[in-house]
Write a structure and sequence with these properties.
- It is a single chain.
- The protein has about 190 residues and is mostly helical.
- The protein contains nine helices and no strands.
- α1 packs antiparallel against α2, α3 crosses α4 and α7 packs antiparallel against α8.
- The two termini are about 30 Å apart.
- About 30% of the residues are buried.
Length: about 190
């Protein structure tokens, strides 16, 4: 199956997603479904190059997210906004607000691993935009909640952020040490 054929098969499903989302939004009492659809479809829309379309549909829902009771649904919505916004050219401040809302909802839901990943996303954005000191603070928070029993792929996020911060700061020797550790973790994950 070629990519073109796959996308042709997928087109009706994307149209169904659009219709379902519009239907949920048009029904005053079914915003929960709209938020669930937004949260579940963010990554797909990004992969398909539809980030801007997703943002145009999802951003107007932001004022209503407080009506959603399930913190996991709230977190997924904000994670989608951040993910689509990163590809759809949302301002850095808006990306950080979305990540902060997601992180708060994840904490409320008691989802420590997803909080860790949210912190990683925030730290990565900060270091990428030249705010290495703020990224260091985020990395420190990640270290405080990391457990030795966490999966290797999760722990590797912290090392990846640490290496990126060290490179931005020009501390190449230290970054090399952590890069070796990161490579060891990566090799273990592949087994």
């Amino acid at each position: 199956l070629t990519m073109k054929a796959f996308l042709e098969q997928l087109a009706p499903e994307i149209d169904n997603l659009r219709s379902a989302f519009d239907w949920a939004v048009d029904r005053d009492n079914d915003l929960e479904t709209a938020f669930r659809l937004a949260g579940a479809s963010g990554t797909l829309l990004r992969w398909l190059g539809l980030s801007q379309e997703g943002l145009e549909k999802f951003l107007p829902l932001r004022p209503y997210v407080d009506k959603v009771e399930d913190p996991s649904t709230v977190a997924l919505f904000w994670e989608s906004i951040r993910e689509l916004g990163d590809a759809g050219r949302l301002a850095k401040a808006d990306l950080l607000v979305a990540e902060d809302h997601a992180k708060s909802a994840l904490r409320a839901a008691g989802q420590r691993r997803r909080v860790y990943k949210s912190l990683y996303n925030e730290g990565w954005l900060l270091q990428r935009t030249g705010q290495a000191d703020d990224a260091v603070a985020i990395h420190s928070e990640m270290q405080r909640i990391e457990l030795a029993a966490d999966p290797l792929w999760l722990r590797s996020l912290g090392l990846n952020l640490q290496v990126a911060i060290l490179v931005v700061r020009g501390q190449f020797e230290r970054s090399e040490e952590h890069t070796s550790e990161l490579q060891s973790l990566t090799n273990l994950v592949r087994r």
